[in-house]
Amino acid sequence: MNDFGKATNDDTVRMERLLPGPIERVWNYLTDSEKRGTWLAKGEMELQVGGKVELNFLHASLTPHVEQTPERFEQMECGFGFSGTVTECDPPRLLAFTWGGDTSEVKFELTSQGEKVLLVITHTRLRGPSEMTMVAAGWHTHLGILQDNLAEQTPRPFWSTFEAVEKEYKQRFAE
Question: Structural domain tally of the chain?
Fold first, then answer.
């Protein structure tokens, strides 16, 4: 499976990962604040349509690797966050919510495949190649850390991974 996401149209990025299961374990990493905080962001999540989603990012806490935050992201060094609203919820197979307020939407779809789980993330309503590149590189990096956590391996470094894959996405999305 190719780890790089794809632009499925001019405002949508789709990512796929085959993860160690079972499906309930992966679901918990999406919905439980503490588990989600190990690969993406902590925050409360009301698992019902219309429920509130809080995401509080602290990239330095995702990995034991100590890295300098890139200058363009220094404002995020001590954390940042935003809220959204759950738009779809069917545990443990489907979760969708608005991202960054209501500017875009992210959907997580889980499917059991033997002892593994296929996770498909579709992020829609993105504004052009630049935002698609940033979102794809972010998801790519965060999903790599999720894969590491589920495999019980030391999570890869965040910022150096992000910057490496961002270069590839710039070419793929012709930013």
Answer: 1
CATH code of the domain covering residue 153: 3.30.530.20
C-alpha triplet 103, 107, 109: angle, nearest 5°: 175
Question: Residue 120: beta bridge partners?
Answer: 16, 109
- How many whole angstroms separate alpha carbon 160 and alpha carbon 165? 9
What is the predicted pLDDT for the residue at 101?
A: 75
Length of the chain: 175
Contact 30, 95 (CB under 8 A): yes
| Segments forming the whole domain that contains residue 86 | 6-172
Question: What tens digit of pLDDT does each residue of 67-108 get?
Answer: 999 999 988 888 889 999 999 999 999 999 999 877 899 999
Whether 1 maps to a domain, the answer reads no
pTM across the whole model: 0.94
